[in-house]
């Protein structure tokens, strides 16, 4: 009976009895030692190993916006000492906008123990630990631990499995930073951290984040946007809620991922940054705060999208679309009214279906990658090559080299030249594909709104833009008065159709040029070789008749040639890290003569010095950008005016993916290029210039600087 009573008391007491392992509903905790036998007076390491339930987490020494750090209270023999916890590098948890720092899956909190110098007999380590573990709810838990270690003339190591555990735990602990660091305060009081990590390659470093060691000086809820330059790492921060002065020393953990020959390596460094009164960052850390990202209502965004789609018909980047529309208008000339209406509705359906598909792709990418931008597909060399093929095939069709009846297997683009509703529908599809690298006035704000909203709003705005793009053709097909203005059908229609092949060939050349900027000279070989194979396939299918000998052999050979052309895409790198060339210089797609490569740090430095700054965000695949350069930015008069005004000219090349430029576009609520920012001398905020520039507009902006100097 007495044994049953003792057992019952043990079960009821639970963790009140000290033990090496404590298991709660959510965490298994174990006190482990790196040595099996201790030596009197010789320090050794122990660790509190915690294994959390899936999706649950505990907290770091600075828990962030909420939570509590794990605490350990030691009860040791007289003369023994326990040092503070050595914390591993934390992870970030963003739960509904509440940012916490902590650990998931497993963590090992290391503590250095020094036994008494006069220890005789075993050493008893007793500890009480408490922690907060959270998922959707938070639960405080605790445990009492006791570990008895024999002593001897020399310390003996623990079993190999335990030693491996300690090795892994040490690798998770941040190492001392090899770089010095300082921080400065802007006029608004927000700190900017500058890590003098010279020699880092910007395209090799990603996922940079600074975890402040203490709550208060730095706001954890504000998103960080680090800039990596050859001079170092700059991290604009937001001041925290603590009602105290900023500390003379800002401590924390810097975490980053570096791309090496062995793959991506995650690194963590203990950092200590001194407050530098001479370092006063310009108030450009957050352009969204300085300039104000455009805040639209859904109705405003829909109106802007409709107007932007209408104006898109007039933008230079849609010249290939204008050629296809001209051919479609010519087909309408001799049709019955009902047939013309069907063509107009089919074209509109093609445009809207394409925009709806694009909205679906945007939503899918956003749910996985977290962000997406307008024209992102043109940053892929594979897409550039496929569009070059498409323009080339459509050009051959318009030239009369082949007709749809020739059964060119695998080349569905011939559908755009087929008569009737099918041809009109696919003309609309192709119009959307080639129009995506362009943004027109009103489009930028609407797209910025659409790409940051829930799925229904994203779909609605993109469909409104598609309706604007299709509206002129739809109005023509539906309005008899406008139809009477069209010329009568005749032989001129065939000549016009053949003439319109040349804009398509020019567009194919343009896409090959874009491809070379993304992949180098090899892109020309793949593109031209593929076009030869496609032309060869068309020739094979045109010779002979369906009943002639060798028909199936020709078809098989033609299909093989087309597949070989498309196999060229396997040779292209579809994930370039930046727009820079392999040597680290500027990408060839955009001219940098007279311009500096954009970086947020360089822009902030120039603005802080009181200099005028002009920023041009551009891309080789953006025809509007290139036209603006030719007619407004690179004219002799504009160059002279820039020079006389001593303007710092920065160019951001977005031909390939660039995280820093994408971040700036996102801050400003913009979805793509072109984007032009102009900082007047000592101005508090930049001015966004129109997306279609003129020489007179540039000269007018620069003349104000000259007048101010006088």
Describe the SSE topology:
Blueprint: H1 2-13, E1 21-23, E2 27-33, E3 35-37, E4 44-52, E5 57-64, E6 71-75, E7 81-82, E8 91-95, E9 98-104, E10 106-114, E11 123-134, E12 138-149, E13 156-157, H2 160-172, E14 175-176, E15 181-185, E16 191-195, E17 205-212, E18 227-229, E19 232-236, E20 249-260, E21 263-275, H3 287-292, H4 298-312, H5 319-332, H6 337-369, H7 381-398, H8 420-435, H9 443-450, H10 455-478, H11 480-483, H12 492-499, H13 501-519, H14 522-542, H15 551-567, E22 596-597, H16 600-608, E23 613-618, H17 623-633, H18 636-644, E24 648-653, H19 659-667, E25 675-679, E26 687-688, H20 695-709
Parallel strand pairs: 14-21, 15-21, 22-24, 23-24
Antiparallel strand pairs: 1-2, 2-4, 3-13, 4-10, 5-9, 6-11, 7-10, 8-9, 11-12, 15-16, 16-19, 17-20, 18-19, 20-21, 23-25, 25-26
Helix pairs in contact: 4-9, 4-10, 5-8, 6-8, 6-10, 7-13, 7-14, 9-10, 13-14, 14-15, 18-20
Characterize the structure shown.
There is one protein chain. The chain is of the alpha+beta class and 710 residues long. Among the domains are: 14-172, Thiol:disulfide interchange protein DsbD, N-terminal domain (Immunoglobulin-like, Sandwich), CATH 2.60.40; 181-281, Sandwich (Immunoglobulin-like); 596-709, Glutaredoxin (3-Layer(aba) Sandwich). The protein has 20 helices and 26 strands. The strands form 6 sheets. Strands 14, 15, 16, 17, 18, 19, 20 and 21 form an 8-stranded mixed beta sheet that branches. It has a 5-stranded antiparallel beta sheet with strand order 1-2-4-10-7. A hairpin with a 2-residue loop joins strand 18 and strand 19 (232-236). Helix 5 (319-332) packs antiparallel against helix 8, helix 7 runs parallel beside helix 14 and helix 9 (443-450) packs across helix 10 (455-478). The longest helix is centred in the middle third of the chain and has 33 residues, at 337-369. The radius of gyration is 33 Å and the shape is elongated. 41% of the residues are buried.
């Amino acid at each position: 009976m007495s044994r049953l009573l003792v057992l019952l008391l043990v079960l009821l007491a639970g963790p009140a009895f000290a033990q090496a392992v404590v298991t709660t509903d959510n965490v298994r905790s174990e006190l482990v030692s790196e040595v099996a036998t201790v030596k009197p007076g010789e320090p050794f390491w122990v660790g509190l190993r915690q294994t959390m339930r899936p999706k649950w987490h505990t907290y770091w020494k600075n828990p962030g916006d909420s939570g509590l750090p794990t605490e350990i209270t030691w009860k040791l023999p007289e003369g023994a000492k326990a040092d503070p916890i050595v914390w591993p590098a934390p992870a970030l948890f963003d739960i509904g906008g509440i940012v916490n720092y902590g650990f998931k899956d497993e963590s090992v909190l290391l503590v250095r123990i020094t036994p008494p110098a006069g220890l005789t007999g075993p050493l008893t380590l007793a500890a009480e630990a408490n922690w907060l573990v959270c998922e959707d709810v938070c639960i405080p838990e605790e445990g009492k631990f006791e570990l008895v270690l024999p002593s001897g003339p020399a310390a003996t190591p623990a079993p190999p499995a335990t030693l491996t555990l300690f090795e892994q735990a040490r690798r998770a602990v941040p190492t001392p930073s090899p770089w010095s660091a300082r921080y400065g305060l802007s006029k608004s009081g927000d700190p900017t951290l500058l890590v003098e990590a010279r020699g880092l390659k910007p395209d090799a470093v990603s996922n940079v984040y600074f975890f402040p060691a203490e709550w208060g000086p730095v706001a954890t809820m504000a998103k960080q946007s680090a800039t990596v330059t050859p001079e170092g790492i700059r991290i604009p921060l937001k001041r925290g809620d603590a009602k105290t002065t900023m500390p003379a020393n800002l401590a924390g953990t810097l975490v980053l991922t570096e791309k090496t020959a062995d793959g991506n390596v995650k690194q963590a460094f203990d950092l200590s940054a001194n407050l530098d009164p001479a370092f006063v960052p310009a108030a450009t850390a957050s352009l969204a705060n300085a300039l104000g990202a455009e805040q639209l209502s859904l109705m405003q965004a829909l109106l802007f999208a409709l107007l932007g789609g209408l104006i898109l018909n007039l933008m230079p980047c849609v010249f290939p679309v204008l050629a296809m529309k001209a051919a479609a208008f010519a087909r309408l000339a001799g049709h019955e009214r009902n047939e013309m209406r069907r063509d107009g509705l089919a074209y509109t359906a093609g445009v809207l279906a394409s925009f709806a598909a694009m909205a679906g792709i945007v939503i899918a990418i956003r749910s996985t990658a977290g962000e997406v931008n307008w024209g992102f597909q043109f940053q892929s060399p594979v897409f550039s090559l496929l569009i070059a093929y498409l323009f080339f095939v459509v050009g051959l069709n318009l030239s009369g080299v082949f007709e749809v009846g020739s059964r060119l297997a695998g080349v569905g683009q011939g559908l755009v030249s087929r008569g009737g509703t099918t041809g009109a529908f696919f003309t609309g599809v192709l119009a959307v594909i080639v129009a995506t690298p362009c943004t027109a006035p009103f489009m930028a704000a609407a797209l910025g709104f659409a790409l940051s909203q829930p799925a229904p709003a994203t779909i609605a705005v993109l469909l409104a833009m598609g309706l604007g793009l299709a509206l002129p053709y739809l109005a023509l097909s539906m309005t008899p008065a406008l139809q009477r203005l069209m010329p009568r059908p005749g032989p001129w229609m065939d000549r016009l159709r053949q003439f319109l092949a040349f804009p398509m060939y020019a567009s194919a050349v343009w896409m090959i040029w874009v491809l070379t900027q993304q992949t180098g000279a090899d892109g020309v070989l793949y593109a031209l070789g593929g076009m030869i194979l496609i032309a060869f396939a068309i020739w094979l299918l045109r010779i002979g008749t369906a009943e002639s000998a060798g028909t199936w052999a020709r078809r098989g050979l033609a299909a093989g040639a087309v597949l070989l052309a498309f196999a060229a895409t396997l040779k292209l790198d579809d994930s370039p890290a930046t727009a820079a060339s392999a040597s680290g210089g500027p990408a060839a797609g955009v001219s940098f003569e007279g311009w500096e490569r954009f970086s947020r740090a360089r822009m902030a430095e120039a603005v802080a010095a009181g200099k005028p700054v002009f920023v041009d965000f551009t891309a080789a695949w953006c025809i509007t950008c290139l036209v603006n350069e030719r007619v407004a930015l690179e004219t002799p008069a504009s160059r002279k005016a820039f020079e006389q005004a001593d303007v710092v000219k920065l160019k951001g090349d977005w031909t390939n993916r660039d995280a820093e430029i994408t971040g700036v576009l996102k801050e400003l609520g913009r979805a793509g290029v072109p984007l032009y920012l102009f900082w007047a001398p000592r101005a508090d905020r930049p001015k966004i210039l129109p997306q279609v520039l003129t020489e007179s507009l540039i000269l007018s902006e620069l003349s104000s600087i000259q007048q101010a100097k006088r």
